[in-house]
Amino acid sequence: MARQDRITREAAPLRQQVVKLLREDILNGELVPGERLRESMLCETYGVSRTVIREALRQLESESLITVVPSHGPIVTVLTAEEIRALYVVRAALEGLMGKLFALHATDRDIRDLLRHRDRMALHYTDGSIEQREAYKAEFYRLLLEGGGNVELAATLHGIHARIAIFRRFAFEDSERMDLSIKELNRIYEATGVLRDPDLAWRACEEHIVLAGELAIEEYRKRTSMAD
To answer: What's the CA angle centered on 118, arms 220 and 90, to 5 degrees?
Structure first.
């Protein structure tokens, strides 16, 4: 698991580079839920000091990707099916509100930007890399939240997205889920940016996440020994 060749000392600070690499190793399943993260092993893997590793672990703990277990140390976070469902119930409500607020408050410029993004996704999303798909989806959320104009909602939803990053990655890897997701996103674009119907926008956003939650549990169960 040697990663030293992936660390450069000229660009971003070492801590940021290690955070990015550790996060990626968790999201792509190289570090699995429940796996213990020993500082000595991580120092060797990434070719950095214990101080840098500790700072990176604290950052990922704040994102809920890592859990520090008393008398055991940091591990890759493990969630139960009920914990995942609870997160997605909250996410569905927040994203429903996101869609409604956009339909109510977006300016003409917000609408134009959202529909341009829809057109770009239609051309490039399916054939893009996982990282490119994630970037397109992040921009989708940025536009909707900015148009809705509620900074507290944006901050809260950002925190939820950080906690479920591993499940969102599943959708970007699964071609069947991705095709379904595109159809759901088109309904959101229609409700928010074309019809500007607050109730329809709420339902479209909420339904997108309800289905995503069930698929997240199913995929997580395949990759771990999770039990209800």
So the answer is: 40
Output Rg (C-alpha) for the chain, integer angstroms: 19
Which residue in the block uniquely carries the two structure tokens 């341009």?
116
Q: Are strands 66-69 and 73-76 parallel, antiparallel or unpaired?
A: antiparallel
Q: Which amino acid is at 8?
A: T
Q: What is the pLDDT along the chain (228 residues), one digit of tens a residue?
A: 545 555 655 556 889 999 999 999 998 889 989 999 999 999 999 999 999 999 999 999 998 899 999 999 999 999 888 999 999 999 999 999 999 999 999 999 999 999 999 999 999 998 889 889 999 999 999 999 999 999 999 999 999 998 888 888 877 777 777 888 899 999 999 999 999 999 999 999 999 999 888 888 888 887 776 544
Tokens read off for 107: 């300016």
Predicted model pTM: 0.83
Which structural domains are found in the chain, ordered by start?
4-76 (1.10.10.10), 81-223 (1.20.120.530)
